[in-house]
Amino acid sequence: MVRRIFLVYVEFMQAFWEVEEAQDKAIQLLASFVRDKSALPYLLTFTELIAFAMKTHVDSLKLQVDGCSLLLEILSQALEQDVVVALDENVTSSLLETVRKHSENEELLSLVCTLLMMISASEVAAENLRKAGAIPDLLSILRSFLHNEQICLSCCGVLWSLAASENNVDQAVLKSAVPVTFAVLQEHLQNGEVAESACSALWALSLQGCLSENDYEPITALLLDALRMNPERPVLVKNTFLALASLLRLSEIPALRFIMDPKGNGINLIKYAYHLHFDHPEVVENICMLINEMLQYDEVVLDMRFQKMEELLSEIKSSFPSRMEIMTLVDAALLKLQE
Prior knowledge:
The protein has helices at 2-15, 20-31, 40-44, 47-56, 61-80, 89-101, 106-119, 123-131, 134-144, 149-163, 171-175, 177-187, 192-207, 213-229, 234-250, 253-260, 266-277, 281-294, 298-306, 309-319, 324-338. It is mostly helical. Helix 1 (2-15) runs antiparallel to helix 2, helix 4 runs antiparallel to helix 5 and helix 5 packs parallel to helix 7 (106-119).
């Protein structure tokens, strides 16, 4: 019975492509099924039809909002039920067309950007977004709506997915994302979710070699501020330490800022992070990685000896005897401190 109902909806949408009211009515009827978990397999078959309706009637703000809301509900249900959703490039291109057509509508952009963040977790979807030139659109949205926490959270999440991709991304485009992502983190330091997303994006951008020497010190200082404001968030701590480690591989400038920051020595932040996340192996491993990157600089070695980092490393070693990655990093750090 349910299957027959959905087949009727398919036929209806296909028969009246050009009629905006018909498409919007179909989307509203489909929306009435989103809370029925048993309907999810049928709703998933409608993602392309919904996207096509949105693309056909891209000028209709109401249809864009209704279509995005329904897609968001469907994907959220799929996520809750651990259902993998493969969306083709027609869906991503439709969403980008919506972004470009309604670039000043904050409410709609908030919905679309949340959708883009959800689908960009898929490598295929991320690649489709990259090919479609999504990054300049995301940066334009961020510049216009820097105050909007949801938009910043979503756009930085998409940036992270696209910048972390192994496929070649236009370096010039990615470099233009650095000041915008910096501005997002600066604006939303106190919002843990947004800060976490921005720190992750900065880490990905640093890995892609997008930071210039002039960026090293201010980004290091801002990442330290993010740690101070949100020390309890393990993902933020983990990715911020990875971003700092990436910077330290490039230059001594971040290392000096780390130990001489006017707001307090960054080594104390490492100790505090370990105190909060001592039972989180990934965070601890990234702490050890960061320590090793810092120890390549003589001034830092002296400071770490003064701060008695050997005690912390010995504690880590006794706490994770079976984690070879951590043990290797700890042994390397202890060796440098004892030279």
